[in-house]
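Lab channel / #folding
Pinned by the channel admin:
"Please post every new chain as: sequence first, then the structure tokens as a reply. Keep commentary short and put observations after the output so the thread stays searchable."

First post following the new format, from NK:
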Amino acid sequence: MKNVSIIIVVFLLNMSLLAQAPLGISYQTLIRNSDGLPIFNTELTLKMTIRSGAPDGVVIFDEIHNVISNASGLVNLVIGNGTPQNGSFNTISWGTSTHFLEVSLSLEGNNQWTILGVTQFVSVPYSLNSGSLSLTSPNGTNFEVKVDDEGNLITDCFPDPTQANAGPDQWIAQPGISTPMQGNIPVSGTGIWSVISGQGGIIEEPSNPVSLFTGIAGGVYVLEWTISNSCGETSDEVTIIFEGSGPFQCGNSFIDTRDGKVYSTVQIDTQCWMAENINIGTKVDGVVTQTNNGVIEKYCYDNLEENCDEYGAFYQWDEAMEYSTEEGVQGICPEGWHLATKMEWHQMANFLDSTITDPDFKGWQGIDIGTKLKQGGASGFEGLYSGYRLWDSGNFSYLHSLGVFWTSTINYLDPSVSWFRKIEKGNPMLYNQGHVHEGGFSVRCLKDYSYPPSWDCGDTMIDTRDGQTYNTVQIGERCWMADNLNFGTKIKGVDNQIDNNVIEKYCYDNDEENCDQYGALYQWDEVMDYYFIEQSQGICPDGWHVPSKMEWFNMANFLDPTVTNPDVQGYQGTDIGTQLLQGGSSGFEATLSGMRKSDTAEFLSLNELGIFWTSTNNPYQTIHSWFMRLALGNPQLYQNGYTRTGGLALRCIADL
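Reply from TO:
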């Protein structure tokens, strides 16, 4: 085989786009033999190899060209249009490092290669023929210029500015003070705060992502955090609300800080209700089932958002409860509000229409309660005939005819059903019944009880009626007294407590010191203060009430999941009794305070039994009400009904 040398006569790396794809680099050379004579009209096989970083660097692309030298010994080819062996010419990133071209020759086409030379690419225009060019501006901004198959130049700028995040919305309880912003720190670009809406707000350091912002009492502000660089800008908004002077007063409007919607409120008896149906969440079509996906989903009548704006939204029960089954939970309500229970609806209805006396009645009841609750009625509740979503088809029906509202109370005999309330156009009564959870109904939220700002569950609570102090304990989501109530005027055990506007108590063996140590004993009617509605305040301090059987059950089930039946008559659980007794892990600190017998009025079982009234009467035997009992040496909890004239202890539970 003759020795062959390569003499580069023309080595053109053109800024041109060839007529045929793919893009390429025009290349021309003259090949001579060892005698220096051109090789004319000869079939040759050339391999073009592109290495990265050094003459012997990593091979990122190579290809083979079968060519014929012309009568002058010249060879013409296009790098990028040969038969690829490794890599892709179109994906070479020319601007990221230096690149070298290695040319090899095989005269016989037998894959035996002779390297003819290695040359560095020294001009950035080559990158245009590869599809992209990376450039850096004097201020340090990077640009990538690309050419498409039609010859159009496309310019991309990088890096993009950091995605702006203005932080969570803020509700500031104190009027007119400063609060730090919570914007993110830009990785690329610079940030700036601006006030989009609201009067009198001051940003202390507009370019500081955590700048202090000062507003005025009652002010509602929307601020924007914008991050920008030479490539563009991103922005995000945050709402900051400063509460008005003084605490929230029922009857005033309030703002749901989650989405900025404003709701009217109304005071009915001791309760504070929303006077509008809630409208929170992302709209889904009626045929779609709402799911536990971390997003509040809502239905709008006829799938129109404007109907949600006018009538409020619909929710399946599980969605309204945020997939809890605990009565009285916050659910989808704003912070400080909760889904009203069946008993809370009953309390409101009974206050407005005293003929409503049975919270468990199924059907229509009352004289004029429906008239009072409807829009324009005397109560201020402003109930809307907003219709509802049918559970089986996902269709909507009864707009302008019915208003249907979920309660947070499940039917424990059929857990697929929960209680609702219904008003009907032209009907002066209120309907009470259960419905499967798949229906889409309206929701009215009820205000939680507001403790003094300095008081937290777990702190000592002072009963302002007599100055006595009580320990408290948080169990699950509820706050319980950790001492038995001891309030009232002591009477002898042989006397019955009566409705005489004086709270009367028994002390074990008629000894006041036993009341001080163990708490007092009461007959059930006295405990309820002669108002026989479940979960009523009774003789508890303001902000507390007599716990229902279900509230006892929820607490017991939280501590001991083997307690599963709220209606069992007898012992249940594994170690619930041990946890509740004095020194147990729950902090409930139940004392074995004994009892006063209903028939003989004698005191017995001190340091042996601790027996506590609930506010739940037995509807089948009304002389009995439910109690909970703990016994020395027994790790379980006992529940049953007992004659209301017996004297038992009382633990109060904080209102929601």
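NK: The first strand starts at residue 4 and ends at 10.
TO: also worth noting, The longest helix spans residues 342-352.
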